[in-house]
Design brief:
2 copies of one chain form a homodimer. The first copy, chain A, is built from 5 helices and 14 strands. Chain A is an alpha+beta fold. Helices cover 21% and strands 41% of the residues of chain A. Chains A and B meet through strand 1, strand 2, strand 3, strand 4 and strand 8 of A and strand 1, strand 2, strand 3, strand 4 and strand 8 of B. Strand 9 of chain A pairs antiparallel with strand 3 of chain B. Chain B binds a DNA duplex through strand 5, helix 3 and helix 4.
Chain lengths: 259, 259
DNA sequence: GAGTGGATTTCGCAT
DNA sequence: ATGCGAAGTCCACTC
């Protein structure tokens, strides 16, 4: 139950006090954690009703709102950052409303009982670095096209064609054009269709033979059939090799989980 | 700083005490909120490093783990429910590890300072009801095909064809087959392609004229062009009418945001 | 503001 | 377990 500039913790507040505490914290753009019994309604792109129960409400300094049940990795209800927050006391309930426009939607959390409120001014400037995203995978293939096809010569990348952007565009040893679509995960039918559209578009603009190559760590079964029907190819990409290609100096153990 | 069977709140704990408190709470499958300065690493399908900063860690009773920065509606790092948790004290740091298999991945949160720990035994049996999902939209159209096309006679739904399942399959007043794809949001190019594949598949198996209908509240601009090229149609679906059709007895004001 | 594509997507359902 | 599509997806980026 200590209070200072950074942190405020309150337990078992009555509705009036909780309302004031939350309103003050919101005004100061603090992060809020509220634990208690609440019900939730959402109106917007869809609608939802959540009956009463004990949950954890998270309100962030940018206005993002999350309602978490005791289980499940995702919030049962939420509102993205940038929404407008309003706290009121109504019929002995604490009501927190989060509204936004485009799309117009609103989330209403109604607490009948508040167990704990934590209001904190959090300082977080630490960098976040994600490796082996699709972007990094592309960097690796661009730096070392042999990872994709032996003797592949890169012509360009992110080449604009009508349906979108071709990830990798090059020539093989027989001077056939190679149109490659990269996926960091298992490639499905959607990826095959995407590639097919690119290949079709390129064929209409060149007399050269065009190879359509889907490059991914694995290929979904349905995608395999479709690929064959459309005369496209699959190339298995070795994520571990790509990782080593991207991060030559780093600890090789970093990729041990990537199989 | 009260303690009872339901709720435990601790502030400014040293690492040793924090470690014990968390281990005990985890053993009791309580929900945990930890606020403090931490760094995070993730190894698995990808890899990530999050440098030191003040965050909110949420551990749920089913083992789901979420690391939230002060902004953004989504966790910066997470681990889905069902993973194995381990808490250790290491070089005066509090280390929490969450590991799972299939896929093999692990999340490591390392606290240098713990501001607050909240451990709560939450009871939540309230129902959650989501309305106007794609499934409900389909129900509405099936119950009242006129919402889609005047005089549409339903033949079947979720009809299996090679590329997948046709949402709505019927006959119009001219006895042309109607193949309709429903979307609850704005329909894009992917939806057009999906419909095109269904129509193509149906045409190969019937001598009847086949109309391909994309039914959605709105159509993306790029999708419009593609639709025209492929000889398909767009039908605007009135979500409000669908909602009223589904929920005849409910408060009409419930759908006021749905435009 | 809309449109497009990726995501450690997650989630659910059917195979 | 895998595959497939939907999601109140969120998110960043482009036009």
């Amino acid at each position: 139950m200590k209070t200072d500039g950074q942190l405020l913790v309150r337990e078992r507040l009555d509705v009036r006090a909780a309302c004031l505490t939350i309103a003050r914290a919101l005004a100061q753009h603090r992060c809020l954690v509220v634990v208690g019994d609440c019900s939730v309604e959402y109106h917007g792109r869809a609608r939802s009703v959540l009956e009463s129960g004990e949950r954890i409400l998270l309100i962030k300094s940018d206005g993002a709102v999350l309602v978490h049940r005791p289980t499940g990795s995702r919030p049962v209800n939420w509102q993205p950052s940038g929404c407008i927050l309003k706290t009121t006391e109504k019929d002995h309930f604490l009501v927190i409303e989060a509204t936004r426009r485009t799309p117009m939607e609103s989330l209403t959390v109604c607490f009948t009982r508040v167990e704990v409120i934590v209001a904190a001014e959090l300082t977080d400037v630490g960098g976040f670095y994600l490796h082996l995203s699709e972007e990094e995978l592309q960097r690796a293939v661009l730096a070392e096209p042999g990872l994709l096809l032996p003797d592949l010569r890169l012509v360009t990348y992110e080449k604009k064609v009508e349906p979108g952007f071709i990830d990798v565009y090059g020539l093989d040893s027989c001077n056939r054009l190679v149109v490659a679509e990269l996926k960091r995960g298992r490639a499905g039918r959607a990826a095959v269709l995407q590639l097919a559209r690119y290949v079709e578009s390129v064929r209409q603009s060149t007399p050269l033979v065009v190879r359509g190559v889907l490059a991914a760590p694995a290929l979904a079964k349905g995608a395999h059939t479709m690929l064959a029907q459309l005369g496209l190819e699959f190339v298995r990409v070795d994520l571990e090799k790509c990782a080593q290609s991207i991060l030559p100096g780093r600890d090789k153990k970093m990729v041990e989980f990537l199989t």
